Amino acid sequence: MKHEDELRLHAYLDGELGVTESIAFERSLGEDAGLRSQLAELRALRARIRSQASYHEAPAALREKLLARAHRQAAPQPRPLARWSVWLAAPALAAAVLLAAWFAPSLLPGFVMPDLRVQEAIDDHLRATLASHWVDVASSDRHTVKPWLSAKLGFSPSVPDLSEQGFELIGARIDVIASESVAALVYRRRQHVVSVFVWPGASAGTGALERRGYHIVRFERAGLAYWAVSDLNLSELQDLANLIAAS
Questions:
Q1: Are 108 and 100 in contact (CB under 8 A)?
Q2: Residue 183 pLDDT class (50, 70, 90 cuts)
Q3: Residue 191 near residue 30, CB atoms below 8 Å
Q4: In the chain, domain spans
Q5: Which residue(s) pair with 224 in the sheet?
């Protein structure tokens, strides 16, 4: 494998490529069996690490020791500023407070701005549309799709067969949202295709919204977040979400 391909492979896996770059790389994947094999190995390795790695909490005594040291090393309080210095510093202080309020949440571990997650969900759906690569596993049988996702991701989303209700299951794929691998269930409703993204944890918002001509319906079920994304009208997309939530 060329060094350039290896760098793009890792960037693609981590969701760091833009829409155009991702489409070009997926074309390369379609032409290079070795590249597809390497991607599958990396995804499997990531899934094993996430499912098997253990977490060890620091002892309470260590936490108390570190806090005590931090208090001892705290800088002394600054002397009061002259009145004119306070007057000059006030605008800068106000600007700093506003910037901190804006950027601080995004610096917290695991925090993702909700609009950024929405943008990524739409981009993933659009990328699949432009590349005509809707699924990694093509099947209308939920007993095929569900075990495939469980083996790849380490969690098991609900994959109901809703063909009788007018939503045809055509398969699933693995996508990346907020730097995390997520399941993408794929349903077809007439000429419209729906990507239902699923990941463990909170949904970062529930209910419906619209961006760039696409609807998103968000809900939670059994500890998993579900986001249904499509250009399908909102009423029918909500119907699909309700059917999955009730399955």
A1: no
A2: very high
A3: no
A4: 3-50, 114-246
A5: 200, 221
